[in-house]
Amino acid sequence: MSTRIPSGLIAAKGGRGAYQSVAASLAAAHSAELADAIDDALCVLGACCSARSVALTSPGRPIRKTWLAPETPAPAELGEALRAFAAERAKDAVAERALVLDPEAKGEGERKLARLGLLYVHLVPVRGRHDVAGLLLLCRSSRPWRDRFGPGGPHAPTEARQIAELIGLALERNRLSEERGEVKRRLRQSQRLEIAGATAAGMAHNLNNVLAAMLGHTETALEASRGSAAVYNAVLSIKNAGERAGELIENLLGVGRRDFVEKVVQLGSLCEETILLVRPSIPTRIRLELRERSDGAETIGRVEEIQQVLFNLIRNAAQAIANEGEVVLTLETRSGDPSLAMQIGALALREYVVLEVRDSGIGIDAVARLEIFRPFYTTRPAGTGLGLSTVADIVSEHGGALRVLDAPGGGSVFEVWFLTHDEAARTVFLPRGEGEPVLVVAERAVRERIEDVVAALGYEPLGLSHPREALRVIEGDPDNYHAVFLCTDLIELDDYFFLAERFHSVCPTLPLTILTPGRTPPTLLGGVSGRQVWLAGLDSSTSIAAALRLMFSSGDGSRGAGRE
């Protein structure tokens, strides 16, 4: 907790100099220096307002507090009291308020502050660009500074509101900087995946030739082993595994040029087949079984991709078991609950086939659970970090959802929710339009390809070469256009964040997707999610189509309803 009033910043106490000094300090502070700059600003604010203690609370961040009573040390329980009081007064964060605290109050935070002698508190909202980013608490042990408590309550000095505004802008700038860094990190990961994909596609051609020879020999081996049931079944399993491998190789060769093909997948039979194929690679100390199988558990999708989900989840579960243990698969039909929190995807009010893969291993801690589906994240020295990210991609492409839970008695449970056959058959994975206008802002060569995708889905694209033209068009008729594709490259990404804000200043409800080089699946930008902005790769027709679906399903109906 800071007790230092920075020299030079307080020279003009109560005057314009304090505001200018704090403004300069916060403006010059980088992310790593922002906490110290805010501490200094709180010191200046407390001195200007003759406060005994000043605190700043903001969601998701530790409380910042300053003690400005040099005659007494800061009480050890001050931080806890301020945190509790801020939680109690969170609803007051939208307006400036003055409070007289009661030592016998019901609220624990108010009671503790009052018993510390802090009987008078001013609450000053700290605002970002679009919402309240935090709350300033100016605490005193005597009557407030200049004003008396009247019917409407006193107002904090001008300095308090000005410095609160400066802190709010600094927090907003830092949030935007962190958000941009996260988006760039995702783009770098996407580029690494593209390089890996290109390498894999090149290798697939050679693997296909080797695999064809292997499958040819298995036919000969089958004929030669008909007298031995054990040998025949073993060779048959090799042949089945080789055929599945051939299907996966075809997928590698067709990356970027295949559409979603509907095919009925019987999940119970697929689980049994996968267990037979993967059993030889699992240590014998680990039991592997399908314990419960729901009759008629069917979905629609690519059988080889769904089997890849099973392979990866079973192997991941087995690797989590150090000694003896078990991996148990179950299948059952459940109704989707939209309020159920999922790590990948979201549930709708529909029927699902739920595949559970439960292990008795070491479990997954809270930190790893947030990262395990991110490409290249691994906790194993020999791991690639691509197994679970592949699972997440496949489940998302099939319109499913996924979450990880702690298993009773230890271990983990991976729940995969696939739409049932009937529900999946009614779901259109690509959006269909009826002529709704969509703006496409990009250079001509790129724009024409994007326009082809948009038009093929039934929408009416309007292509423009420059954002200024698009802004003029929207300003002329802000209710006519239903979505915008804004095409850029990684170097200019920061500029396009600001451009997205400019589009929303003209039409706040307009959904917008920033298209960048690569095959990045549509990602909602976290810090501006309320502004309906997505990021997607322009080199994938599937990503462009999925972004359209997300944009048209994000609105309130005034700009075209989502169609499924």
From TrEMBL:
Claim: Lipid biosynthesis is one of the keywords in the record: no
Domain Histidine kinase: 202-422
Reactions catalysed according to its record: ATP + protein L-histidine = ADP + protein N-phospho-L-histidine
SUPFAM superfamilies: ATPase domain of HSP90 chaperone/DNA topoisomerase II/histidine kinase, Homodimeric domain of signal transducing histidine kinase
Top enzyme class: transferase
Keywords noted in UniProt: Phosphoprotein
Protein's UniProt keywords contain Ligase: no
Enzyme Commission numbers on file: 2.7.13.3
Domain of life: Bacteria
Classification via PANTHER family: SENSOR HISTIDINE KINASE, TWO-COMPONENT SENSOR PPRA
Protein name (Swiss-Prot/TrEMBL): histidine kinase
Species of origin: Acetobacter sacchari
